[in-house]
Specification:
The chain is of the alpha/beta class and 194 residues long. 15% of the residues lie in helices and 28% in strands. The protein has four helices and ten strands. Strands 2-5-4-3 form a four-stranded mixed β-sheet, with helices on one face. Strands 6-9-8-7 form a four-stranded mixed β-sheet, with helices on one face. A two-stranded parallel ribbon has the order 1-10. A hairpin with a 2-residue loop joins strand 4 and strand 5. It starts with a strand and ends in a 22-residue tail after the last helix. The C terminus is likely disordered.
């Protein structure tokens, strides 16, 4: 598939993709274990010049940066588990097998809620749960719903990616590198809500 940058120099920033999500956590050890064991991320080296406790994890073409802040308990003590609300802020990951995700969460004894979104006869399965610090995580098969831009100046891409420099990006001096995009991230990463 081809992704063609269609904006001119003055309209949009020369972005390539989402690089990482940074999360404050009460315990880097607990949170890193969660992202490794539940979501399959891998710990990677982070800059040694950092003078604070943290961890970097990577997989699926995205990074998770954890920053330890034990004082979070002073502001938001976790007395009891928060309700799992699909309309809450969350980060979403594309999955090829949502039913398997549900079985694995059950095996780990994790609480979750499910939802089904239907659009023109297409059904999307969603599973929502919290990480150790209460951040919402969604696993879904949202790639079933086609990306239909509301703006005529945006051209969506297909499912087998390679980046191509357009005439507009060449004028701006923007360099795009050749890269095969991972199917697991597709367009669902746009579900990030802050």
């Amino acid at each position: 598939m081809e992704i063609e940058e269609v904006s001119s120099c003055g309209e949009a920033l020369p972005l390539l993709s989402l690089n990482h999500v940074s999360l404050l956590c009460r315990s880097v050890l607990d949170s890193a274990r969660f992202y490794e064991e539940v979501l399959g991320f891998v710990l990677i080296k982070r800059p040694s010049s950092f003078n604070f406790t943290g961890a970097w994890l990577y997989n699926y073409g995205i990074g998770i940066h954890l920053i330890e802040n034990p004082s979070l308990d002073e502001f938001e003590p976790i007395m009891e588990p928060r309700p799992i609300n699909p309309k809450d802020n969350h980060i979403s990951f594309q999955s090829t097998d949502v039913m398997l995700v549900k079985r694995r969460l059950e095996e780990m004894g994790m609480r979750y809620v499910t939802a089904v979104v239907e659009e023109e006869g297409i059904k999307v399965d969603q599973v929502f749960f919290h990480d150790p610090d209460g951040y919402m995580v969604e696993i879904c098969n949202c790639d079933k719903i086609p990306v239909l831009p509301l703006s005529p100046s945006f051209k969506p891409y297909n499912t087998n990616a390679s980046f191509r420099k357009s005439a507009a990006s060449a004028k701006c001096g923007v360099l795009f590198m050749e890269n095969e995009m991972m199917e697991s991230l597709s367009m669902d990463i746009l579900n990030l809500v802050f």
